[in-house]
Amino acid sequence: MTNQVDGAVTGTLQPELGTGTSNIGIIFTSFVGLAEDQPCPACTGATVGATGTCQGGPQDGQACTTDGTTPSLGNTSFDCPPNASADIGASTLPLNLTTGSRTLPLSATCIGSSANGKPCYCADQLQPNQCHDGVCTVDADGEGAYLRDRSTHSAPSKASAPAPPMPIAPPRATVAPPKVRGCLGVTDATGTLTDPIVRTGTPSQATPLQVATFCINATRNSAVNAAAGLAGPGTLRLRRRPRASNRAVLRVVDEPYRRLSVARRPRA
After folding, report:
1. pLDDT at 177
2. I need a labelling partner for 82 at 20 to 30 A (CA). Which of 43, 108, 187, 226 fits?
C-alpha cells in the first residue's frame, strides 16, 4: 500500500497549550504484494538516509535511499515503488486530526440488501458492520469489538501402531478458541447503529494525542472493498512529539503509538 498527500496540508498549532489541528488529504493505493515474506519493494540501505539498491519492483537493482524502516515491511524507499500493474484500487483518506474531539455522525443510509434503510455513517456503506450477529459494543475509548462464536470441528487422532488388533481412537472433538474482531459504531441488540463515532484527543506540550474520524471511499476493486469493508468509517489515534529545530521551525515527529481502526470484514 502506498500513501500520497492529496492537496494542501492545513492546520493550527498552539505550542504553549499543546493543542493543534491538522487537515491532510491522503490517497492510499493497494497493490498485490511481491511475495508473502516481502510484500513491498525494499531498499538495502540499513537505516533511514542510507543508500543501497532496490530489491523488487520496477526499479529492481537501481540506486535508492532508505526513507523508512518497519519490522514487517523492511526498509522502504520512495525510489523503490511497487509495480504499476499490481495496482488493485485506490481510495481517499481525509484525515482531520485534532487534540480536541472528532465526531462522525449517522448521516447516511445503508444500501446493502441485509441492512437497506438502516442508519450508516458513510455514503455507499453497505451495512453497519460485518459482525456475525450484527451487534457491536465499544469500550471507554470507543473501540468496538465482538467475540466470534466458538466452533467445533474434528481433528483426526494420531494412530501410529500398525498392528490390526490395536484399536484406533475415534476423532477428538476440539473447540476452536474464540476470536475477537474489531468493529466501529455501537449498535443495539438488533444490530442497528445508535450513536455517532466519537474520538477525543489529549492536549500536551510533550506528547499530544491527535484523533480523527472519517469516511473511506470504496475503491474500484470489489475484492479490496469486501476485505476492508469499504465504503465505511475509520478512526485514527496518533501520538505525536513536537520538537523544535535549530532553525526555530516546529517539527512534529510521529511516536510509535499509532492505531488506525477501519471497518473490516472479519476473517474466519
Report:
1. 55
2. 226
Task: Spell out the residues 6+ positions from residue 100 whose beta carbon is closer than 8 angstroms to its own.
Answer: 19, 21, 200, 201, 203
Neighbours of 124 (CB within 10 A): 16
Check: CB of residue 71 under 8 Å from CB of residue 42: no
> Cell numbers at residue 181, please?
474482531
Cell of 179: 476470536
| Three cell numbers, residue 62 | 537501481
Residue 51 CA to residue 53 CA, distance in Å, equals 7
C-alpha cell recorded at residue 238:
496518533
User: 262: buried, middle or exposed (CB in 10 Å: 19+, 13-18, 0-12)?
Assistant: middle
pLDDT band at 259 (very low <50, low <70, confident <90, very high): very low
- Indicate the pTM of the whole model: 0.69
Q: Are 125 and 108 in contact (CB under 8 A)?
A: yes
Q: Is 228 helix (H, G, I), strand (E, B) or coil?
A: helix
With a CB cutoff of 8 Å and minimum separation 6, the contacts of 142 are: 197, 198, 199, 235
- How would you classify the pairing of strands 51-55 and 63-65? antiparallel
Closest CA to 240 of 9, 22, 87, 16: 22
**Is the dihedral angle over the CA atoms 26, 254, 74, 52 positive or is it negative?**
positive
Residue 179: which pLDDT band, with cuts at 50, 70 and 90? low
pLDDT tens, residue by residue, 35-76: 888 889 999 999 999 999 999 999 999 999 999 888 878 899
